[in-house]
Amino acid sequence: MTIYFFSKWASPASYTAVDVDPSIHLVNNQCFVSAHEFDLAVKPNDLAKDLIQRIHEETGLTEKEKVGLWEYSRPEIDSRTWNGCQNLTRINPDQKEQQRGTDRFAPIRKVWDIFIEAYGIHYIPHEFLTVDEQLLAFHGRCLFHMYIPNKPAKYGIKIVMVNDVKSKYMLSGIPYLGKQWTRAIDRQKLGHSFTKDLTQHYHNTNRNVTTDNWFTSVPLIKDMLYNCGMTLIGTVRGNKSEIPEEMKDKTTWAPGSSAFLFTKVMTLVSYVPNTPSSKKIDLLMSSMHGDKSLASSGKPTIINRMKGGVDIFDQMCGQYSCGRKTKRWPLCVFYGMLNTGDHQLLDHLWGKYAKDRWQTDKEEAVYAVVG
Fold first, then answer.
1. CB atoms < 10 A from the CB of 124, how many?
2. Which helix (DSSP H) or strand (DSSP E) does residue 27 occupy?
3. Which end of the chain is more exposed for a tag (fewer CB within 10 A), N or C?
4. Cβ–Cβ < 8 Å for 89, 331
């Protein structure tokens, strides 16, 4: 299944790099599964293409992603599709404890690495990037699932990713496996480490990165500017020791007013929202801006100009999701990769399927993606 999906971008040499399932034995390019699980012997590519076409047809087009695969009555959803999905990403029982002892993401790590590598090398992003979190909805058993109240899914698997602001194209992603398992380098905070790792391929290109307050810090801004050749814009939490108290005191400020603080390499902006009932102050840092420019609304131009790339990307992926109801988190991650791949490829087909034609040509466009 995965093999065919990645063939859209990766080289044919990558086909054999992913095992569809350890219980499936490859003999002379034939796929054999134990009789009680699977009574067919097919080529891996044929199986992959068949499964993906069925999943996309029955979910993305009909928008029934909340219906379990076994609940379909169509004859195409047969035992081959169901058993193939069940076998996906299982770990060999003999190696299960060993692999999970070193990597919680082991059941789908090999697939994920090929996925990230394939999509990252085939796209040159614009000048603005954004780093944020995607939450894959999942309510089953998982050692690293999270609760994020401001995300639509609330509960799920957190993927930290970097996107192109203009096209919303996903460039790279790292799963969050918990503080003990997602280790930062050189005592850096996790947000600092994530930002550097995700933007590694674009260091020294003078691009700009936008982050939220979980990532932004003064050490990160200086590190990205001096060591990585990139500027950074981000919201920042008021409890940071580098923020002067004068920039956090709004008692004497009028609603809609802004205060600026400049250093040689960065700008700090404190903005009071134009709502009397608001009790918060928006704090932003930037190593890209060095003036007091304001938009027509009165807000600093730094605010909201490059934000929202990952959120819009997440919304696009969920619009025609091919995900299924599942209690297995590796399969949930795999469905997330399928949704990501659809968005990436449809982004390139957008010129052919213009916005006014999308609703009528939706089926044609989806089949152009899955082949």
1. 10
2. strand 25-27
3. C
4. yes
| Paired residues of 30 in beta bridges | 27
pLDDT band at 350; cut points 50, 70, 90: low
**HSE-up of 244 (CA within 13 Å, CB side)?**
11
Query: If 0-12 CB within 10 Å is exposed, 13-18 middle and 19+ buried, where does residue 74 land?
Result: exposed
CA distance 130 to 206: 14
Q: What is the mean pLDDT of residues 339-361?
A: 61
Locate 91 and state its tokens.
Answer: 């770990």
Q: Which burial class, exposed, middle or buried, applies to 12 when counting CB atoms under 10 A from its CB (0-12, 13-18, 19+)? A: exposed
Give the pLDDT confidence score for residue 239 in this predicted structure. Answer: 82
19: which residues sit within 8 A by CB, 6+ positions away?
110
One-letter identity of residue 126: H
**The tokens of 353 are what?**
């399927």
CA distance 111 to 124: 23
Exposed e or buried b per residue across 170-207, where buried means at least 16 C-beta atoms within 10 angstroms of its C-beta? bbbbbbbbeeeebeeeeebeebbbbbbebbeebeeeeb
Which residues, at least 6 apart from 276, have a Cβ–Cβ distance to it below 8 Å? 255
Summarised one tens digit per residue, pLDDT across range 92-148 is 555 555 556 677 888 888 888 888 888 777 788 888 899 988 889 898 888 888 898
Specify the 3-state DSSP secondary structure of 287. Answer: coil
User: pLDDT digits over 4-53, tens only?
Assistant: 344 444 433 333 333 344 333 333 333 333 333 333 333 444 444 455 54
Domain borders along the chain are 2-109+320-370, 123-309
Distance between CA atoms of residues 212 and 133, nearest Å: 10
